[in-house]
Design goal:
Elements: H1 22-57, H2 86-103, H3 118-128
Length: about 140
């Protein structure tokens, strides 16, 4: 029997070992943990530095700290000088609107039903009607 120069149990050039290097994995894990701790410490150090910088720059510039001007309108509810709740404000607004609707005769005071006066309906319908001649 002649041999062709290759052994039956020889490994091919594309073969990779079946075992993993435990030492390599352990070094990777150790390096990974140390790198993560270093990043966390740097971020924490920066955070603390920013907090201390903001605390140092937050100084009182006036002896009249107790006097705060009222914020501009619209003020959120409830706030300084506006102690009503949103429900109370809504009820006030609806009462004011209903009084205006009754004054303009758009709402019947007794039934609380809306009815637009016929002259306004006619004006609006004339404005929205197509201009021009027939068909």
């Amino acid at each position: 029997m002649q041999q062709t120069g290759t052994e039956p149990h020889a490994e091919s050039a594309a073969h990779e070992a079946d075992t993993l290097s435990v030492r390599g994995i352990l070094w990777f894990v150790i390096f990974f943990v140390i790198a993560n701790l270093a990043v966390l410490l740097i971020v924490w150090w920066m955070y603390v530095g920013f907090i201390h910088h903001d605390e140092r720059s937050d100084v009182v510039t006036s002896a009249l700290v107790a006097e705060h001007p009222k914020p501009p309108e619209p003020r959120l509810q409830p706030s300084l000088g506006h102690e009503n709740t949103p429900a109370e404000d809504l009820a006030t607004m609806r009462a004011r609107e209903n009084a205006e609707f009754v004054r303009r005769e758009w709402m019947d005071r007794n039934t609380q039903r809306f009815a637009i006066p016929q002259d306004i309906v006619n004006k609006v319908s004339q404005l929205s009607a197509p201009s021009g001649g027939g068909r």
